[in-house]
TrEMBL record:
Protein name: Replication restart protein PriA
Listed HAMAP family: PriA
Signal peptide segment: none
Source lineage: Bacteria, Bacillati, Bacillota, Clostridia, Eubacteriales
Gene name as annotated: rpiA
GO molecular function, one term: ATP hydrolysis activity
Amino acid sequence: MYNFAGIIINNEVASLDRIFTYEIPEELKESIKVGQLVKVPFGNSNKRLYGFVFDLKLENQGKIKLKKIASIESDEPLITDKDMQLIENMKKKYLCTYIECIRLIIPTGIMKGMKPKTTDVVFLNGSLPDNLKKDKYESIYKIVEQNNGMYNRSQLSKKFNISVSSINTMIKYGALTISEKVLTRYDSRVYDVYGEKKLNDFQEDAVNTILYSNKRKFLIHGVTGSGKTEIYMHLVKKMIEDNKQSIILVPEISLTPQMIERFKGRFGLNVAVFHSKLSDGERYDEWIRVKNGEVKVAVGARSALFLPFDKLGLIVIDEEHEGSYKSESDPKYNAIEVAEMKSAIEDCILVLGSATPAVETYYKTLKEDYDLITLKNRADGALMPEVSVVDMREELRENNKSIFSRALYESILETLERKEQIILFLNRRGYSTFVSCRKCGYVFKCKNCDVSMTYHNNKGYLICHYCGSTQRIPSVCPKCGSKYVKYFGAGTERIEREIKRLFPNARTVRMDRDTTVKKDSYERIYNGFKNKEYDILIGTQMIAKGLDFKDVTLVGVVAADLTLNLPDYRAGERTFQLLCQVSGRAGRGSKKGKVVIQTYSPESYAIRFSSTNDYRSFFKEEIKLRHDMDYPPFNKLLLLNFSSKNEQLLIKNIQIVGDFLKNKAKEYSNIYVLGPCPSPISKINEAYRWQIVLKGDITYEVACFIKKSIYELLKKVYNNIRVSLDINPLSLL
Ligand code: ADP
Ligand code: ZN
Ligand code: ZN
């Protein structure tokens, strides 16, 4: 039996991020286990805090008198040995704290002492005694007989219009009784069966390769509609047969009713659905169900990765290139990296799937870290759409100043006449914008960083948000001398207005962040469009993925340049991905689809290769560029984001940190310090934002050193300046 325990305290203060030693009182020595939830006295006031048993020891070195653990709060360990390994790995990778990791693994409800929800339902108990042999009681008796144990008193009263006092009378005389029943807060509805499909040869090969080769990590590169989801489902089925469990991650936004219907329709109550929009109670219940071994497969957003499965056999990450796999709050983990750690710890299969894999991921298949499986054709025989790229400079020359090219206008007209549906797509993000020449397509880019410079409306100059260099906007284009140098303006609302003006009879609906703030608005718009209540859906990147509408035969990309010129080294990759994804929306049914892409830079490789759906060629260009510019996967980036309501204080202190880091960087030949400069989103919630970007061989030791140094340098102002570190951020916005 052990005498001492290392405890992780449930408290987010960074200085408490260590293991505290406590004495185990005699009466707890037999029952205490690693991973259990406990309560311990803490601090001067000995306030009781929750903590987790990290390890158990016979002896304690150092301090003589220790505080004692107050109580054990969970019968079983909530964190397993494997979780502990994962936490150690994550701490190294993301410089996060123990408790931040633990909070990913354990739902908040548990640390608030949540219990399963119960209610006192009414049952028949005995026969009706003589004194109650009246019509009133006899009819209540019948009702309860037919609904035995289904409702509590007030539910019975409401549903069948009977008085609670009559029920109480019947309980008093022993005709009825009440008993506690656990309520299910998770979705326990029965779904329509989603039948298994016979796999085609390509799918069959993929399944066999994944199950029977000695490799563990796979990338399925399959065009949209190639039947990847069906492959995942067959893998899950095999896991169930082998008594193993699976996790299927999908991007939050693809967690559509359609996706859930498919999995629940095939695997029924063996499925748990897990994502950030669940209530604490729903989360708790799903988590407990997994812990109790009632769940065979979890479908969910990145948080589902941490569900407490005990025999995990498979992790699938669908649409692996998606940004939502990277957490934006601490710990800023990347679900793919964590899945890789988990796959190694649990020795389980990891499958990533995408029509447009992330450049980093595809690169790993070349290094033979992952096995590549390619699916070139759509599974249901649907044809790939016909894609045409329209040069908007040409439109200007022909004196067409509308936001729609003649080709797109004609196509909309024809599609409306055929009574088929249209999606118009504009990836507009309000805060940053680039400047270009409408005549020749020239875009102002930073020479050091190869990213577009951003226009600052109020100041009249351009800034590079990587290195901070600035430039006045010239009045004429440096390339062709034209005066038509402008920043990019149109948004989804403007497109909607134009459509209403040009096609007054078309029924349009808009989907973007503004129209989907209300809880069910996404579903409402989605279902409305699906049921053909609208002809045209106009939207931002929200509509680019996951949607599967059979009657959409035209997709228009109003301005591909918006993504192409994001101030981000991934702009090219994002453009390629988005264009392929939106194109995948056209012609999912038996009708052939058409895609029109409008742009001022039709020669850009991202646009050229997306129009022919040629991932390999795109990848070759992109990886060369990454190599030349020292961007990932060839180097790491570390984004240091500083924010404060006091702009002066912020600028002064970030300069101090910047000077310090630049000085230090001289000792390393391979680390570059970019900035400090204002973040592309320069103000959020009243707080100003500045950033420093480090590029190079940033090891764990280097990152730790930087974190510590910043803490030292900003010690006095730490309450007024927030600093966040992000290793390999997905974007530098
Ligand atoms: P992906 O996930 O690659 O986009 P899906 O799995 O959603 O593709 O499949 C696209 C469509 O093809 C779906 O409607 C699906 O039902 C259908 N499908 C998939 N596999 C088969 C198959 N083996 N036979 C017939 N239809 C299939
Ligand atoms: Zn020009
Ligand atoms: Zn720059």
